[in-house]
């Protein structure tokens, strides 16, 4: 299989090279961070004026690099002061006090540093404390729909969209294939690796069965308003007692590992963010489906909402759940500079009641920001009489807003 370049990410990385800025690639394991780094390595290696120092902490040959002193020794041994040095370190969170080494090498002339990691708190806290704003975090997501088509050599049609909805966008599926059993086994392997390395071991979690039950609960309730207290009450009804504070911590750890994304509620009229009752979406809808036991009847709307959320993030929006006095807006999306859009997610708008639910809440917002309904209803893109744009999911995923 030929190497496929995810050009938008490569362009982002290239923009910050040569600017004394540490580049930090973050995201869930197996979404492609390592591949991005290897592409940069191969590009720079072609120039004899460059020296590449590449450390992959998932390979046995680098097991001896455990601390920042070990890291200093390895880099010092391979550093060439007469060339431009590219220091590339994959899964750097596995090196104790790595930030001390990174800080010292950041000031070396003719040196660029790119690191990857799968833990949001550890990377952001340690780097921001020791080097301030001299780093750029680039969030790598699982494949977009357009990338999915390219990776799997598919044409854009309803059948391809159905495969994306079912299997999601882990890049490794391009090698595994989209046969149900093989794909689900691969997705669950990735999920268990993330859970073990980035949640259980890193946070010394002892109640692993509850953690797994919690993730299944969140998969079953994707896109629903949830609080730690409501989860605690539900679990108690199932014969499992656990405090709300512990649930809050577990969810926090899952979000740190990029398995989950928490979306806060936003009071549209009061213009404030609520501190309770959030929604949760999965980084990859294929993993979500594997955890939930497949795409069951009644799940399709949840999965579509998950896909729409991820694509809104991909388009650069900060996303909230919109709260109205008499209803809810699935997504309130903002960008710096005051840009805002409202989005309702739906599966099929088959009757007047569904249409009123999806369009009616948008009509009740009395401002001039763009408003959208995104669904799989067969249609030509058009505006209704109140200026609400109805988009087909495929058009949204291929062309954006």
UniProtKB/TrEMBL annotation:
Signal peptide: none annotated. Residues 197-344 form the DUF4143 domain. Keywords: ATP-binding, Nucleotide-binding. Residues 20-149 form the AAA domain. The keyword Nucleotide-binding applies. One of its GO terms (molecular function) is ATP binding. The keyword Lyase does not apply. It holds the Pfam family DUF4143. PANTHER family: ATPASE. This is ATP-binding protein. It comes from Segatella copri. The lineage of its organism: Bacteria, Pseudomonadati, Bacteroidota, Bacteroidia, Bacteroidales.
């Amino acid at each position: 299989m030929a190497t496929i370049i995810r050009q938008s990410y490569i362009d982002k990385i290239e923009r910050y090279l040569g600017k004394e800025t540490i580049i930090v690639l973050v995201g869930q394991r197996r979404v492609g961070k390592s591949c991005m780094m290897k592409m940069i390595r191969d590009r720079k290696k072609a120039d004899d004026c460059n020296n590449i120092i590449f450390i992959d902490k998932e390979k046995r040959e680098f097991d001896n690099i455990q601390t920042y002193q070990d890291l200093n020794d390895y880099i010092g041994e391979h550093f060439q002061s007469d060339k431009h040095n590219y220091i590339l370190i994959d899964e750097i969170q596995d090196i104790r006090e790595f930030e001390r080494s990174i800080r010292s090498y950041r000031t070396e002339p003719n040196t660029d540093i790119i690191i990857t990691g799968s833990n949001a708190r550890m990377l952001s806290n340690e780097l921001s404390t020791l080097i301030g704003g001299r780093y750029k975090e680039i969030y790598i997501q699982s494949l977009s729909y357009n990338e999915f088509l390219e990776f799997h050599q598919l044409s854009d049609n309803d059948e391809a969209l159905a495969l994306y909805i079912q299997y999601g966008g882990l890049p490794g599926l391009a090698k595994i294939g989209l046969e149900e059993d093989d794909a689900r086994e691969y997705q669950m392997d990735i999920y268990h690796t993330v859970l073990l390395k980035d949640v259980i071991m890193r946070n010394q979690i002892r109640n692993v069965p509850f953690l797994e039950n919690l993730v299944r609960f969140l998969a079953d309730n994707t896109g629903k308003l949830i609080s730690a207290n409501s989860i605690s009450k539900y679990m108690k009804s199932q014969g499992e007692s656990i405090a709300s504070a512990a649930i809050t911590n577990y969810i926090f750890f899952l979000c740190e590992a990029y398995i989950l994304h928490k979306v806060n509620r936003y009071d549209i009229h009061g213009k404030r963010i609520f501190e309770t009752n959030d929604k949760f979406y999965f980084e990859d809808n294929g993993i979500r489906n594997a955890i939930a036991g497949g795409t069951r009847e009644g799940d399709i709307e949840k999965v579509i909402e998950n896909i729409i959320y991820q694509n809104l993030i991909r388009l650069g929006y900060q996303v909230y759940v919109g709260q109205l006095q008499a209803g809810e807006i699935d997504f309130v999306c903002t960008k710096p500079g005051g840009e805002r859009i409202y989005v309702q997610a739906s599966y099929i708008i088959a009757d007047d009641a569904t249409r009123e639910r999806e369009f009616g809440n948008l009509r009740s917002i009395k401002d001039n920001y763009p408003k959208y309904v995104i669904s799989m209803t067969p249609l030509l893109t058009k505006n209704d009489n109140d200026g609400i744009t109805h988009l087909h999911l495929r058009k949204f995923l291929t062309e954006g807003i």
